[in-house]
Amino acid sequence: MIIGVPRETKKNEFRVAVTPDGLKSLLHGSHEILIEEGAGAGSGYLDDEYRDKGARVVSREELFSRAELIVKVKEPQPEEFSLLRPGQIVFGYFHLAASEELTRACLDAGIVALAFETLEGPRGDLPLLAPMSAIAGRLSIQVGAHFLEKAHGGSGVLLGGVPGVTPGHVTIIGAGVVGENAARIAAGIGADVVILDVDGARLSELAGKLPPNVRTLYSSEGALEQEAERADLLVAAVYLRGRRAPKLIERALLSRMRAGSVLCDVCVDQGGAAETSRPTTHENPVFVVDGVTHYCVANMPGAVPRTSTNALAAAVLPSLRQLADAGLEAFLARSPGQQKALNLARGAIMNPDVAATFPALPAAC
Ligand SMILES: NC(=O)c1ccc[n+]([C@@H]2O[C@H](COP(=O)([O-])OP(=O)(O)OC[C@H]3O[C@@H](n4cnc5c(N)ncnc54)[C@H](O)[C@@H]3O)[C@@H](O)[C@H]2O)c1
Q1: Residues lining ligand 1, CB < 6 A?
Q2: Which of 164, 190, 274, 341 is deepest in the core (most CB within 10 A)?
Q3: What distance lies between CA 197 and its chain's CA centroid?
Q4: Known catalytic residue: 269?
């Protein structure tokens, strides 16, 4: 198979889907690997390192016109829409439910969209989302602490406090991979942490393994309101697979939050959990509504591309190798979890949750 690894064009996105090390096991099969010039530079991987491992370094045009399988990090960007070809397989993050424009463009292009974020592992886990969620969860506390500083528009609260002074309060909604990682870092710096979820079994699991300064709480409407009002930093990290994030933080609740507090809406890539959220970029990451600083960067791991690329490329490689060696049909037939990666094919939506989000678009599921 001809596999193409393009340079990412989303604003401030420096990750790349394959590292030079990963090429070795891909080239084991009879595959040709095309890497776009400079694709790895943002993560510290040079063209020559890819060349040395057997890839051909090519122009963007050659890559998109020849590759049968494109593996990339972020969803196709508007300037890439016209480069996509019917039947071309694109394997990467899509988050289609968050954007009708993107979904329409990919349908019009006729690509096969295989989404990292809906591919499930044998235990119903999300092996291609998890490493980036772990990074985003850890970063959410780091960026939250930064924007709580007075000079950055915050209330001037130090999350960890000092002896004799109450620490900051961190509220985390969603106790999945993002939530757990956020809780660990927040607890580690000494904050007072509460993590909410609607999944009681998951809360029990976390209660047994998180430090004592993390409380777990069932996410009823009342509990969520109370903990949002107390928060210095509110991290939103809910996920309903393939669907738009539920709007749990309405404008009325936002207006009751502390002045100078920070809302880090990590699930903004699925539309965001706050009514007031809209995607931002690393260049211009925040905006303020009702005195609350909103951090809504949809590609947070892009801020630490060396770590993110190494984690993502390692997670993607086994699936990529199977896909390239076995071909699309056999890859999808291998397990129900792998079948779930299929979001679009032959001009139709193949994922029921994306289809339910956009009922006017053609679907075949
Ligand atoms: N912005 C970024 O750069 C970035 C990076 C990585 C992940 N994400 C996003 O973060 C979100 C979370 O990812 P994850 O890997 O932690 O998902 P996950 O599936 O591991 O966890 C999601 C959790 O949300 C809980 N949940 C669902 N509905 C809820 C509700 N109404 N109230 C409370 N909890 C609820 C679920 O029970 C689950 O425990 C996803 O949208 C993911 O795409 C964003």
Answers
A1: 117, 126, 129, 132-133, 136, 173-179, 196-199, 202, 219, 237-240, 246, 248, 266-270, 297-301
A2: 274
A3: 19
A4: yes
